Amino acid sequence: MMTRIWFNHWFSTAYNIMGMIREDNPDSYIIGTNENHRSVLAAKCDEWYQEPALKGDEYADFCLAFCRDHKVDVFMPRREMLAVSRRKADFAALGVKVMADDYETIAMLNRKDLAYQELSRRGITSVPEYRIVTTVSGFAEAYDYLRERYREVCIKFVRDEGGKSYRLIDNTRRGYQALFKKQNTRMTYDAIYEALSEKEEFAPLMVMPNLSGNEVSADCLKTSRGLIILPRIKDSSRIERLCFREDIMAKIREVLDAFPLECPCNIQFKYLDDTLYFLEVNTRMSGGVQLACLAGGVNLPGIAVNKLLGIDREWEIRREERYVTHAEIPVLL
């Protein structure tokens, strides 16, 4: 029986997720929408439409109408996931299964400060020291406090996706060498102070030590047969390492115990020296989930769709350390 699956505005690596779902669900009929009508995802879809530029409840209304008009069975949201999750009951009334956790959980995890508070309340020690500020004077005070205790300090807004607002506070002059950086995420303290001074009060900003070591990115899914946990260690290269060290696995399980997530998620940690600190939980599949799945020999996207449809499939992770990377391929649009 054909299952009509809708991906709304996703990042381009969902191209791989769509392919993996078809591997496990050959009767899948994939519908895609995006604000960019030339997105690469169009090449992987059976139907393709351009999205309107809406937000919040207006966007959720659009999604409900789209599901009804296109007879969607499974909705896999990325854009405006919080607004969509708030209306899950409305989607259920249409017979649509939404791959998103409950609104209360997503709302908490979308606010890094609330997630940190919950983990701290549970006595989980992997939370880094931080300060939340909304004024320039608060920023100055937080920076002075943390700069005395750590080699480097960074900032990012509490509500952020993909680390877009991350800035390392770097007061060294790099001059000519800075021209070779494709994306420069470094700013001086004075430049940040001046930028923040434009607002009497700004959106909550997190000031914290810069966790300069390798990143651990774990793609996870709770199933009736146990937890799927695929941790990748990422350094500055494009080569990643699937690693099942027990200290890493224990910290991931702590986070999964703290938050009742039934849908796929991605949990991120980062090292500072030899200590692994919690960064955040993304309540969706990561952009690199296909790397973890290839190395671990398990099709997490396919299993997640089957779970939503009430289909229990067997799976087994290849629990060995493996290196994995990706190569870009041309796609005609």
Structural features, described:
It is a single chain. The chain is α/β, with parallel strands linked by helices. It is built from 11 helices and 16 strands. It has helices at 14-24, 56-69, 81-86, 88-93, 103-110, 112-121, 136-147, 189-196, 246-258, 289-296, 300-308, and strands spanning 3-7, 28-34, 47-50, 74-76, 97-98, 131-133, 153-157, 167-169, 186-187, 205-209, 215-223, 226-234, 240-242, 265-272, 275-282, 322-324. A 6-stranded antiparallel sheet has the order 15-14-11-12-13-16, sandwiched between helices. A 5-stranded parallel sheet has the order 3-2-1-4-5. A 5-stranded mixed sheet has the order 6-10-7-8-9. Helix 1 links the parallel strand 1 and strand 2. Helix 1 (14-24) packs across helix 11 (300-308). It is globular and about 60 Å long.
Low-confidence stretches: none
Globally, the shape reads globular
Q: Give me the secondary-structure category.
A: alpha/beta
Strand content: 15-25%
Task: Quote the average pLDDT.
Answer: 94
Figure out the total of helices.
Answer: 11
Instruction: Give a short account of the largest sheet.
Output: 6 strands, antiparallel
Strand arrangement in the largest pleated sheet: 15-14-11-12-13-16
> Termini distance?
29 Å
Strand tally: 16
The share of residues in helices is 25-40%
Order of helices and strands: EHEEHEHHEHHEHEEEHEEEEHEEHHE
